[in-house]
Every structure is written in structure tokens, then in C-alpha cells.
User: Fold this.
Amino acid sequence: MWEGINFETFDFEDNGIGPVGKSFDLLGNGALELVKISGHTSGLTAVKINAGKKFVLLYSDGGYAKKSWQEMIPPGTALDEEAAFKSLEWIRQMSLDKNCVESIANHDADVLPHEIIL
Assistant:
């Protein structure tokens, strides 16, 4: 299926960022951080979009909606339940941070298309 497609892989850096202390600076300037949020799946990644101190967190399937981190409801399935809960705790901490402009899950039916200004 992927024959002929050129993939460039990367390794997460052990830098203390995220629930397991690993992230990857996609552009090399701190603007887009891929943060490892293990648990639901082994390679699950959140995206933290940074603009100065302000940021937006796109936490993929680390939770299914805002209610997930508000009420600490982990994903229904997880390869590692303990890691999934630890990731959800990190998502909650980041979402409550005063510099977080918005945090969004992939499956949140309450999120409508909109523009986010950082």
C-alpha cells in the first residue's frame, strides 16, 4: 500500500516534555512540538502549537472530548491503561494552563470549525 512513498522517520527526544518526557520539535524552532502521549496506542502523539508563551494543544485520542480531561475519563480502550491515565493527567494540566488558548480532541463532537488566533 505504501510502496514508492518516501517516509522520513524521527525519534522522540528525551527532553522532559510531556507525560513520558519525550517530544520532537518538528520545525526545529519550538513552534510545533510533537509530544508522546502513550497509552491508548503506543505511538500516539499530541501536537502543541506554540506562539510565545501561548499555545494550542491538539491531543488526538488522548481523550475523546473536553469532558475527558475535565472528568478524567480515559479512552475506552488502551494498550496501557496506566500510561493512558498519565497522558490524560498531562492533557488536563496543559488544558488548565493559563497560557493554553484551546485544547482539542479528535472526536469532540462539540468542536465546530473555527479559527484560533495565537
Summary: DSSP finds two helices and six strands in the chain.
